[in-house]
Every structure is written in structure tokens, then in C-alpha cells.
Amino acid sequence: MEDGVYGTAVPPFNGGEGASSAAFWGWGSGGGVGECGVSRDMPPDLTAAERLELESIRRRKQELLGEIQRLREELSEAMGEVEGLESEVPPP
After folding, report:
1. Are strands 2-3 and 9-10 parallel, antiparallel or unpaired?
2. Letter string b/e over residues 33-65, b meaning 16 or more CB atoms within 10 A of that residue's CB
3. Of 33, 39, 57, 64, which has the maximum CB count within 10 A?
4. Is there a contact between 8 and 65 (Cβ–Cβ < 8 Å)?
5. Rg of the Cα trace of the chain?
6. Spans of all domains in the chain
7. Which residues form a coiled coil (predicted)?
8. pTM for the predicted model, two decimal places
9. What CA–CA distances, in Å, run from 2 to 16, 47, 67, 78?
10. Distance CA 13, CA 2 (A)
11. DSSP symbols for 5-69
12. What are the distances in angstroms from CA 16 to CA 21, 29, 43, 84?
């Protein structure tokens, strides 16, 4: 792990570690709705407005994670194309 902004640990960004990164950050196991419509991992001391805000933040986080994954795939494709072009050009 590397030190990120503010000295927090940042999991590596490799495609094969998505699940472990999600587990590291606590993204993979929560967010579902339990009995009576109350989220399983929602702190009980939040106001209704705070619960809505937290749900909104969690939705946005999932959107951003999807965008990161899409960008990783695009970058991987582009790097493959560059490597292919480099192998076609004879060295000087």
C-alpha cells in the first residue's frame, strides 16, 4: 500500500484486486436495506436528513467506482495499442 492524501493508506489500483480494494475500504459489504427499510450498516444515531445524505454519498461512490473501472479498461486498451505500435516501428 502507498500513502495517499493526508497519509491514508491507498490500495493498489490493479484490475485483479477490485474485491480486496472494496473490502479494504468497506465498499463491498454494506449499503443494502434490511428489515423495515433500514439500511443494515446505517449508524442508528443519524437524522433522516443525514441518512438521505449518506445514501446519496454511497450511490455517488458506486458511480465513481464504475467510472474508475471504465477508465482503467480504456487505459489498458490504449496501452495495448501503444505497445503494438511500438513493436511495429523499427529502432533507430
Report:
1. antiparallel
2. eeeeeebeebeeeeeeeeeeebeeebeeeeeee
3. 39
4. no
5. 19
6. 44-92
7. 54-88
8. 0.50
9. 17, 36, 22, 25
10. 11
11. GGG-EE----GGGHHHHHHHHT-SS---B-GGG-BTTS-TT--HHHHHHHHHHHHHHHHHHHHHH
12. 10, 18, 31, 23
Residue 91 DSSP symbol:
P
Q: Quick check: 1 and 9 in contact, CB under 8 A? A: yes
Condensed to tens digits (0 to 9), the pLDDT of residues 35-71 reads: 444 455 888 999 999 999 999 999 999 999 999 999 9
pLDDT at 47: 95
5-8-13-14 Cα dihedral, nearest 10 degrees = 160
49 and 42 in contact (C-beta within 8 Å)? no
* HEC string for 42-53: CCCCCCHHHHHH
Q: Which three cell numbers stand for residue 59?
A: 450511490
CA distances from 47 to 28, 32, 41, 42 (A): 24, 18, 14, 11
